[in-house]
Amino acid sequence: MTKRHLMGAAAALLATATVLTACAPGGSSSSSSSAKSPSGVSTDVAGDDVTLKVLDFWQNEEGKWMDAVVAGFEKQHPNIKIERTTQDWGQVMNTLNLRLADPNGPDIALVNNGWQSMGTLAKGGRILNLDAYASAYGWKDEIPSTILRQEQFTSDGKQMGSGSVYAVPAARSSLIGLYYNKAALDKLGIAVPKTLADLEKACAAVKAAGQIPIAYGSQDKGSSTAILFGLQDLYSSAKDIGDFVYSSGSVPITSTGITQAATALKKWSDAGWLTPNHQGIPFADSMNNFLAGKGVFQFNYTGSLGFSAAQKQTYGYVQLPQANGDQVVGTGSTVGNLAISAKSKHPDAAAAFLDYMASKATAQASVDHGYLPLLHNDVKQSAPDPELATEIAAQQKLTDSNGFVPYFDWSTPTMLDTLGGQVQLLLAGKSTPDQLAAAGQKDYDAFQAQRAKG
Amino acid sequence: MSSRQLLPRRAAPAAAVPEGAVGPAARGRRRQSPRARRRRWLGLAFAAPALIMYGFVVVVPIVQSVSYSFYSWDGVSTARFVGLSNYTAFFTDPELGEALAHVLVLVLFFAGLPILLGLLSAALLGRGKLRGAGLYRWLLFLPQVLTSVVVAVIWKRIYGPNGPLNSALRAVGLGDLARNWLGDFTWALPSLGVIGTWTALGLCMVLFVAGVAAIPNELYEQARLDGASPVKEFLAITLPALRGQLAVALTLTVTGALRAFDLVWVTTQGGPGTSTTTPALLLYRKAFLNPDVGMAAAIGIVLAIICLLVALIITRLSEENA
């Protein structure tokens, strides 16, 4: 290309850019922003044949659970057909904003909690305000406020945890807590820990016996924080953590137990209780190690460890009570939130499906497939699964203490990355618990400033 | 590119066939018979699908990105015009500064080392006297064929705490050197760089070997008659003749280092801490994980401009010395 051609091309590019910049991106979809809840909703969906497109990320074993749920729903509503599209989490999350702008996109989609997904979609009017359906189906009475709060945003998108309902939780739960290998503990003659002090004593004993106390891998930033969030719940009140995450009131990060949690984690690391060389181990590998008997304990998300039938007999789960006192606080939420696309032509039928996802039948299907149910505690276990029984017992304790707290990383879009990086720095001795907390607060403040600007 | 260049060579005489009928005016370079003009449009028509495709896939997104970069936008709701503030943020953000510094290290590994090693292997393999040269060539080119994600997964295993690299070090009594290569704040970036070196080496080698093969043998014979050593032969004949290939290799590998994303994402996600973040990683995060499309677009535009500048400088330098 000659110089003149280049100049011409550059000029043309600039000119086009100027024309394009005249209209703001996203402008066309903003007309539906701060959408009002649809009026004239109906819970009677019998009649015309309807096909609903559902986008979710439940694959493999989890996919079988979802298939069972869909089959149950279609049996109840013979005129409604569910067409599932399943992709992995990242694929769904990264393309969700665009897919929900498509009139032929999904009617129902899984959205993530927090600012980057549900908040943005609610603010941009891409997902339906479900208030009318919430009253029609009585969701506000049936779903505990600590769970429902995770689905709420003000319609201007500025406040999370209050305002209108934008999604419905699936009746399947995901908590962060402590898994243990009962067979290994028995062999060493150690009792299952019931408190943090028990756990620390057990770790010391396991270490003394020449085994690895806590299976851990910190190479992935995102998953390296499971242990930090699990510990955090032992040091702060459910209210303080909740208020911080939902940015209501002005709770500093230092009141959320994060400093104490980081201090404990560092102490455990220095004591040699974590898997050696965990800096080079991806979290997925640490799970395999734990299941292979290398490591007696692991902090993890429920539903992540794929126990074999035999392992279900010898592994267990516990939600440790607070470091001071017997209150139980734990990170817990639904395993997925379903929202209705604002472009859906069959919102009534879609709402019926959402209602079914939160129903006892779905909770029962969860238990049948070895997953922790949510919203309904009176479901029955058919196959003997002692491991799941310990999870259910732990969740019951959480419910009794009303101790559910949201995932800490929902507080800002970048919190998971920030704290994940900080955990790596902390364990490498390049940062202190106070610096970790300060970095979290900085991330939080920056986001709050940006949020205030709109 | 003019449409005339798109025409096959044989079209030119065809245009001049009705010479006598049209008269002297037809000899003018700019005047063409209707038939020739039609052919010209035909050529454009053949090229049109490709051009339209190019426009939609390359030009339009570039223009859009430029436009997005002036906004603060979460990807869904109405964007807010912020002028150049995304760009000023780019140059003041310490995280981006750090990421750019990492790129400089990566350039060394993605471009510097592969080119040096590529030249070496071309010098050894290029003259074709080596036994099993084909096999070496094949082996060295292999990483070029593999998807970068596969490469990353393989190397993740190699670097693992109990992976082959550490095992090998322990086996030969260098256990003190064994470490968490990708989890170590000091070593993660160089370790990542070595993966890039391994990947880029094949491309450089193939380019250079092809270049060496094109050098007339007489030159070497002449040099040998003059009693030149192999090293001198390389410096006096091979290296100058490879200038074009060097420019291509440099352009591809340096811009590759600037754009480094896939290897980093699969192996370390920018960690530990921020020790292996690259601008492309930050771009991805801003575009998809933390919706700030405007900032992501600004990063993309700046990266594109830097890549363009690098390419221009390299081309200019290689031409100047010609």
UniProtKB/TrEMBL annotation, chain A:
Gene3D superfamilies registered for this protein in UniProt: Periplasmic binding protein-like II
One Pfam family from the record: SBP_bac_1
Ranges for region Disordered: 25-44
Composition skew (Low complexity), residue ranges: 25-42
Keyword terms: Signal, Transport
InterPro entries to which the protein is assigned, alphabetical: Bact_solute-bd_prot1, SBP
Residues spanning the signal sequence: 1-24
Domain of life according to the entry: Bacteria
Membership in a protein family: Belongs to the bacterial solute-binding protein 1 family.
Protein name, entry field: Carbohydrate ABC transporter substrate-binding protein (CUT1 family)
UniProtKB/TrEMBL annotation, chain B:
Family classification: Belongs to the binding-protein-dependent transport system permease family.
CDD domains named in the record: TM_PBP2
Coiled-coil regions listed in the entry: none
Protein name per its UniProtKB record: Carbohydrate ABC transporter membrane protein 1 (CUT1 family)
Keyword flag Cell membrane: yes
Entry's Gene Ontology BP terms: transmembrane transport
Keywords: Cell membrane, Membrane, Transmembrane, Transmembrane helix, Transport
Membrane protein topology class: Multi-pass membrane protein
Compartmental location: Cell membrane
